């Protein structure tokens, strides 16, 4: 099985940008954030069932991309991030998200140190909400006991740190 490197963190922290840069750097493929696609189609007035559909859509997208991956697959979020969303939106855990077991080999937790960029699906522009979301994202990684590294700084610093983390993990 090909391992995955998963970008994790709150909104507007550069996950999609870094995912594309890493895929290019390592000549592999990446899976875009399915939750974004879902919200662009269905809106952001979400209920718990929507998070289940997001999880299912993401898992299907990973399965479709996996045959094209070289060495590893880059994922722009995964169901662990959806679990953090559940806590942020609804204040409770969801058993199906907690049961997700196909976790990444390495998680890159994106620091909340970039300027907020509003778009049609981002929900939490306030600094207090962003800080709370960041804490929930980190707590999910700690709770799951997965291997993770914090990534911050400029676009170039993020790429450099992520490449080093991937190499240090023995994945490249």
Helix content: 40-55%
CATH class, named: Alpha Beta
The Cα radius of gyration reads 15 Å
Tell me the span between the first and last alpha carbons: 15 Å
SSE string, helices as H and strands as E: EHEHHEHHEHEH
Q: How many individual helices?
A: 7
Number of beta strands: 5
Shape designation: globular
Structure description:
The protein is of the alpha/beta class. It has a single domain (4-168), classed as P-loop containing nucleotide triphosphate hydrolases (Rossmann fold), CATH 3.40.50. Helix content is 51%, strand content 12%. The protein is built from seven helices and five strands. The chain has helices at residues 15-26, 34-42, 48-65, 79-90, 95-99, 127-144, 155-168; strands at residues 4-8, 30-31, 73-76, 106-110, 148-151. A five-stranded parallel β-sheet has the order 2-3-1-4-5, sandwiched between helices. Strand 4, helix 6 (127-144) and strand 5 (148-151) form a beta-alpha-beta unit. Helix 4 crosses helix 6. The radius of gyration is 15 Å and the shape is globular. The two termini are 15 Å apart. The model has no long low-confidence stretch (mean pLDDT 96).
